[in-house]
Write a structure and sequence with these properties.
The protein is α/β, with parallel strands linked by helices. Helix content is 45%, strand content 11%. It has 21 helices and 11 strands. The strands form 2 sheets. It has a 6-stranded parallel sheet with strand order 2-1-3-4-5-6, sandwiched between helices. Strands 9-8-7-10-11 form a 5-stranded parallel sheet, with helices on both faces. Strand 1 (13-18), helix 2 (21-35) and strand 2 (40-45) form a beta-alpha-beta unit. Helix 3 crosses helix 19 (385-408) and helix 15 (288-294) crosses helix 17. The two termini are 27 Å apart.
C-alpha cells in the first residue's frame, strides 16, 4: 500500500503573515480555529520570517498568501522569495485604518502603472463599505474586495473583567481601588520613524515638507500632553487621589516621553485585557477607541489632528474641550451620564462591522479567492520570480543573524542587526507567543 498522505497535504494551504505578534496573536489564533477544519494554515512574521515562509511555501504550496496592511511595492518586494516558492498563490492584502488617512494615499498607491496593476490584481480585505469605496476609486474591481469587518474586535465578548483588572494591578502596581484612565497613544508610531522609513514615504510620493510637518505636529502633540499632565498633577492633586493614568504607547513603537512619575507607561499586554479592566478611555486618534466603545467605556479624543492625518471615521467624534483635564474629571462621573459613549458606539458599529459575522466573512474571503485561476504577478519595478530567488540569500542571512543575536541575548549588547534591535517587541521569538498551525 502507498504511504498515507498527511492530512495537511489534503487541505488547501494558506500562509498568513502578521505584523505585530502581541497585537495580532489572539485574533489570528481565533481565525486559525475557524479555518483549521478545512485549511492547512501557517503563520509567519512579515518582518523576520520571510525566508522561513519561503521554505514553508515550497513544502505546502499555499493557494492564498495573506499580507498585513501592505504599503505599496516595497512591502510586496519583501515576500518575493515566498512568491518564487509558490508562484500560483493568490495574494490577499488586509487593510486597516491607514486606508482612510489622506497622507497615506500616495504611500499605499504607487504612481507607476506596473506596480499599481499588481495591487489591482491582489485581493483586498477591508473593515467596511467606506474603505471598499476608496479601493474602488483606485480601480480595484468589486470582486477583488472583501468587506469582512474588524478581526480583533470579533474575538472577545467585550465584557468587563475583574479578573483581568486584579491581574494587571498586581503585575504593574496599578491601584485597583482607583479609577483607571487608559490613554492609547498612536503618535509614537510617527516619532519612531527612522531615516529608512522616511525614505520609503518620500519615495512613494509623500513630500518631505508634508512629512516633516506631520512629525513636528506629532512631537508637539505628545509634548503638549506631557505638559498638561504635569500641570494637572501640580494644580489638581486631588484628582490623582482617585485616578490612575495608564499611558499605552503604540505597539512596538516605544519612544521616550516625559511622563510624570505618578503616571504609568505600559506597552505590554493585549489591548483588550486593558479595555476590559479600565474605567475611562482616551486617545489622540487610535482606532482602539472603537474597541473601547464595545466595552461601553466613556471614550474621549484629546488634542487636535491635522486633516491630512485624520482617520475618516474619527472626524465624527468631538475632541474633549478641555483636553486631558476633561478626561480626569470624567473618571469621577457615573458612566451613564456620559452621552458621548453612545455616539462613539454608533461610529464603532459603522467602522468595525458586525463582530458576529467577521470570522465567517474571513473564511468566505479565503475560499473565494483560492478558487481563482489567475494569481497576481509581480511585474515591473524589478519584480520577478528570478529576483525573488536572488533575494533569498540576503533575507536568510538577515533573519539568521536576527535569530542568533535575539536568542543568545547579544542583541541587547551589540544592537545588531540594527533594524531588529529597533523593533525587538515585534520579533516573534523574542516573546513567549505560541502560534498554531504548521
Amino acid at each position: 500500500m502507498p504511504p498515507r498522505r498527511s492530512p495537511h497535504l489534503r487541505r488547501p494551504a494558506a500562509l498568513v503573515f502578521y505584523d505585530h505578534p502581541e497585537r495580532e496573536h489572539g485574533a489570528l489564533t481565533a481565525l486559525y480555529d475557524e479555518l483549521a477544519p478545512t485549511w492547512n494554515v501557517g503563520f509567519r512574521s512579515i518582518h523576520f520570517e520571510t525566508a522561513s515562509a519561503a521554505l514553508w511555501a515550497l513544502r505546502h504550496r499555499p493557494r492564498v498568501i495573506v499580507l498585513p496592511q501592505c504599503y505599496g511595492p516595497s512591502h510586496l518586494e519583501r515576500i518575493l522569495p515566498v512568491l518564487a516558492a509558490a508562484p500560483s498563490a493568490q495574494v490577499l492584502i488586509t487593510h486597516e485604518e491607514q486606508l482612510t488617512i489622506p497622507i497615506f494615499h500616495d504611500f499605499l498607491w504607487p504612481s507607476d502603472p506596473a506596480s499599481l496593476a499588481v495591487l489591482r490584481a491582489c485581493g483586498h480585505v477591508v473593515w467596511n463599505d467606506d474603505s471598499a469605496r476608496i479601493l474602488d476609486g483606485q480601480g480595484i474591481g468589486g470582486d477583488q474586495i472583501f468587506v469582512c469587518g474588524h478581526l480583533r474586535s470579533a474575538v472577545r465578548d467585550h465584557a468587563r473583567s475583574p479578573e483581568n483588572r486584579s491581574r494587571l494591578a498586581t503585575r504593574w502596581g496599578v491601584d485597583p481601588a482607583k479609577k483607571w484612565i487608559l490613554f492609547a497613544e498612536n503618535r509614537t508610531a510617527l516619532l519612531a520613524m527612522n531615516d529608512h522609513d522616511r525614505r520609503e514615504f518620500t519615495a512613494s510620493g509623500v513630500s518631505d515638507s508634508d512629512l516633516t510637518q506631520l512629525l513636528e505636529e506629532a512631537r508637539a502633540g505628545v509634548d503638549s500632553l506631557m505638559h498638561d499632565l504635569a500641570e494637572l498633577g501640580r494644580l489638581r492633586p486631588d484628582l490623582l487621589d482617585h485616578v490612575e493614568f495608564i499611558y499605552r504607547p503604540h505597539p512596538g513603537k516605544n519612544v521616550a516621553v516625559d511622563l510624570p512619575d505618578w503616571a504609568h507607561s505600559i506597552g505590554d499586554g493585549d489591548i483588550h485585557d486593558w479595555l476590559s479592566a479600565a474605567d475611562v478611555y482616551a486617545t489622540h486618534q487610535s482606532t482602539s477607541i472603537f474597541e473601547a466603545a464595545l466595552y461601553e467605556l466613556p471614550c474621549f479624543r484629546v488634542g487636535p489632528s491635522t486633516p491630512a492625518y485624520t482617520i475618516r471615521s474619527l472626524a465624527d467624534i468631538p475632541v474633549a474641550h478641555e483636553g486631558i483635564r476633561t478626561v480626569f474629571e470624567a473618571a469621577g462621573t457615573p458612566r451613564d451620564d456620559l452621552l458621548r459613549t453612545t455616539e462613539v458606539a454608533r461610529v464603532a458599529r459603522d467602522t468595525l462591522g458586525d463582530p458576529g459575522r467577521v470570522m465567517a466573512n474571513y473564511v468566505q474571503a479565503f475560499t473565494s479567492i483560492s478558487k481563482r485561476s489567475s494569481p497576481a504577478r509581480l511585474r515591473g519595478r524589478g519584480f520577478s520570480v528570478l529576483r525573488g530567488v536572488l533575494l533569498m540569500p540576503r533575507r536568510l542571512s538577515y533573519e539568521l543573524a536576527s535569530w542568533l543575536t535575539v536568542r543568545s541575548g547579544l542583541i541587547r549588547l551589540i544592537g545588531f542587526p540594527r533594524s531588529t534591535a529597533r523593533a525587538l517587541s515585534q520579533v516573534p521569538y523574542a516573546g513567549s507567543w505560541k502560534w498554531p498551525g504548521t
